[in-house]
From TrEMBL:
Assembly mode: Homooctamer; tetramer of dimers.
Pathway: Cofactor biosynthesis; pyridoxine 5'-phosphate biosynthesis; pyridoxine 5'-phosphate from D-erythrose 4-phosphate: step 5/5
Pfam families according to UniProt: PdxJ (PF03740)
Entry EC no(s): 2.6.99.2
Keyword Iron: no
Gene: pdxJ
UniProt keyword terms in alphabetical order: Cytoplasm, Pyridoxine biosynthesis, Transferase
Name the UniProt record assigns to this protein: Pyridoxine 5'-phosphate synthase
Role summary: Catalyzes the complicated ring closure reaction between the two acyclic compounds 1-deoxy-D-xylulose-5-phosphate (DXP) and 3-amino-2-oxopropyl phosphate (1-amino-acetone-3-phosphate or AAP) to form pyridoxine 5'-phosphate (PNP) and inorganic phosphate.
Highest taxon of the lineage: Bacteria
Residues the UniProt record annotates as site (Transition state stabilizer): E151
GO MF annotations, alphabetized: pyridoxine 5'-phosphate synthase activity
Organism listed in the record: Negadavirga shengliensis
PANTHER family: PYRIDOXINE 5'-PHOSPHATE SYNTHASE
Length: 242
């Protein structure tokens, strides 16, 4: 079964826009869980453009599903993880000024760095996932870092989906099978939406988790949060046997 982790970054973006506490981030997170989210994902970026340090400290004891904290593993992030001890830490190679996450790790070049970070996170009892591009050369080195999972960076898939979905998904299917062979857990995320999610799930039925935020929050403006979460959950249901 593929779990849906709802990324609430954009709820925090809206809250920060007016400087108050509306929408109430904690309430949205708890409601999202009630509505069917099987995890809550946050990405406390260094500039706190959306999720703040205080948000993480507030959420950590209230989330009852899986808490997934994404980020670049600098001292600030590692301290957050040490204190929050989420179910999962998802490492991304984002520089502080990045508009959003836009690539996976070079697990060849950063092998030793990632190995040390992952060992520290395991000492905290936290499951690890590392953001990765769908290129086979990065997968065995990813396994050698000791990470529990990898997260497929799916923006390239989403970008090509509407024009050539078979071409878009092919590299992801190839590396997903490689990840499975290597014994790596498999997550996916970035720009997944109600158009492209089901096809990815059909072609990679053994996905452990998808984390979805931007498109889901945008859809919720039209369909409501509860209905939207249920719509995304339905995209992840196995196809009915014919
Ligand atoms: C890792 C990933 O692809 C997303 O969680 C990304 O971190 C979202 O960040 P923004 O919400 O700041 O675009
Ligand atoms: N790891 C991906 C994530 O958490 C959300 O990405 P997006 O759906 O906001 O693009």
């Amino acid at each position: 079964m593929t779990k849906l982790s709802v990324n609430i970054n954009k709820i925090a973006t809206l809250r920060n826009a007016r400087g108050g506490n509306n929408p109430n981030l904690l309430q949205v997170a708890l409601d999202a869980e009630t509505f069917g989210a099987e995890g809550i994902t946050v990405h406390p970026r260094p500039d706190e453009r959306h999720i703040r340090y205080d948000d993480v400290m507030m959420l950590k004891d209230k989330i009852t599903t899986e808490f997934n904290i994404e980020g670049y593993p600098d001292k600030r992030y590692m301290e957050i993880i040490r204190i929050a001890k989420p179910a999962q830490a998802t490492l991304v190679p984002d520089p502080p000024e990045a508009l959003t996450s836009n690539t996976g790790w070079d697990t060849l070049r950063h092998a030793d760095f990632l190995k040390d970070i992952i060992a520290e996170l395991h000492d905290y009892g936290v499951r690890t996932s590392i953001f990765i591009n769908p290129e086979a050369k990065y997968f065995e080195p990813a396994k050698n870092t000791g990470t529990d999972r990898v997260e497929l960076y799916t923006e390239p898939y989403a970008g090509l989906y509407h024009r050539a979905r078979e071409k878009a998904v092919a590299p992801y299917v190839e590396v997903a099978l490689l990840a499975k062979e290597l014994g790596l857990g498999l997550n996916a995320g970035h720009d997944l939406d109600l158009h492209n999610l089901r096809y990815l799930k059909q072609r990679i039925p053994f996905l452990d988790e998808v984390s979805i935020g931007h498109a889901l929050v945008c859809d919720a403006l039209y369909f409501g949060l509860e209905n939207t979460i249920q719509m995304y959950r339905r995209q992840l249901e196995p196809d009915k046997k014919q």
